[in-house]
Amino acid sequence: MVLPRAIRAAMRLNPFYPVNYLAALADALVHQDRRSEALDVLGTIVKRNPNYLSAHLHLAGTPRACRRLGEGKGCRSGGIEDQPGLSFNRRPAVLPVL
Fold it and tell me: How far apart are the C-alpha atoms of 21 and 62, rounded to whole Å?
């Protein structure tokens, strides 16, 4: 609970915060099993920066996350396919799956 609150405080102090603040917030929420909030943050990341790889990897972990964001099967398309050498089958097991 403390980490998301601290990240949100940093975001309030800097209205032009970088997208990696959102990524840290999404990671903290996922690890606290607050997946619904994490999906909202991940959706915001993708809207702000469609090429942010970490957000796409989190979203690709489950079709339910894609459906919740209204992207359906197209969730895996876009910025992620443009990354050379990246395969969903080789995604590191370290990333938490929503």
Answer: 23
